[in-house]
Design brief:
The protein is α/β, with parallel strands linked by helices. The protein is built from eight helices and eleven strands. The strands form two sheets. A seven-stranded mixed beta sheet has the order 6-5-4-7-8-11-10, with helices on both faces. Strands 1-2-3-9 form a four-stranded antiparallel beta sheet, with no helix packed on it. Strand 7, helix 6 and strand 8 form a beta-alpha-beta unit. The protein is globular. The termini are far apart. The model has no long low-confidence stretch (mean pLDDT 91).
């Protein structure tokens, strides 16, 4: 497709000052086929000069507003959540992003003298719910929220979480507070992640923490490997680095601890940290 006129605005800080790193006019190898016609596929990868985040500039409508109510899971593997779940839970620890993620969270809580038994944990954008399946093994009370009703049903019937909410943080009236709220590769998909974190803050119990994990594009961009990396694929509004991660946390009124950049067992580049409200 030929270049189209795009309004280049950072999804994170709304700055209009950025550097174009790449033009993408056809679906890269490895990117999930979201049924975007070849004539409409066009996007640009930019780096914001203000907050430092990488972002996809694309036409409105390429990713529909209700995409995550069902099309996302269906596009990945025809909606067969149970099949995906049973495959992923059997990965050994050394090959499992989820099992390593759980160990990070549990270790952080233990190191900060927190009693984890019966802690209430809410996973936002629970998807296949492998993460909460692993968290249950440590005695957490588990709660999921996802806009896809198939994911909600799967969380209840297969994973047997304490409660599964279908919707978004803005659409649900929660009847309890949570000791841990997790965003595992979720905030890169939303248009206003700062707003979402502000909502999550209001749902924290006293001394509660928020664990935020995001795709890390720093080394990938430095090595000029953006095109075929999933961290930069079209379903991501944003891809992060330490500067933009800190911008996100600070502008949501949170304090962040232990920011780290890692390579997951799957080979994905990840940046994560733990946050609490400013006291």
């Amino acid at each position: 497709m030929e270049a189209v006129a795009l309004e280049i605005v950072c999804h994170l800080c709304k700055s209009k000052e950025s550097i174009k790193l790449l033009t993408v006019n056809k679906r890269p190898e490895g990117e999930t086929d979201y049924k975007i016609s070849k004539k409409d596929y066009y996007r640009e990868v930019h780096e914001c000069k203000n907050c430092g985040v990488f972002f996809n500039a694309r036409q409105d409508g390429l990713i529909p507003e209700d995409f995550y109510k069902g099309q996302y899971n269906a596009a990945i593997e025809m909606g067969t959540l149970d099949k995906r779940f049973n495959k992923i839970i059997n990965f050994p620890f050394k090959n499992s992003d989820n099992k390593n993620r759980v160990l990070r969270i549990v270790s952080f809580l233990y190191q900060n003298d927190r009693e984890i038994m019966r802690m209430n944990v809410l996973d936002v954008g629970s998807g296949t719910c492998v993460f909460l399946h692993e968290m249950k093994k440590f005695g957490f009370n588990t709660y999921s929220i996802d806009p896809d009703p198939n994911s909600t049903k799967h969380s209840l019937e297969t994973v047997k979480v304490n409660k599964a909410y279908c919707g978004t943080l803005d659409s649900i009236n929660f009847e309890l507070k949570f000791d841990v709220i997790t965003f595992n590769k979720v905030l890169e998909h939303v248009k206003n992640p700062i707003h979402i974190l502000n909502k999550a803050k209001s749902l924290l119990a006293k001394n509660g923490i928020i664990y935020i994990e995001l795709p890390d594009g720093e080394q990938i961009a430095r090595e000029n490997h953006i095109l075929n990396r999933s961290e930069f694929f079209i379903d991501h509004n944003t891809t992060f680095n330490p500067k933009s991660y800190k911008y996100l946390i600070q502008n949501a009124g949170l304090n962040c601890y232990n920011i780290q950049q890692i390579e997951d067992p799957s080979g994905k580049r990840t940046i994560f940290g733990f946050s609490q409200t400013n006291l």
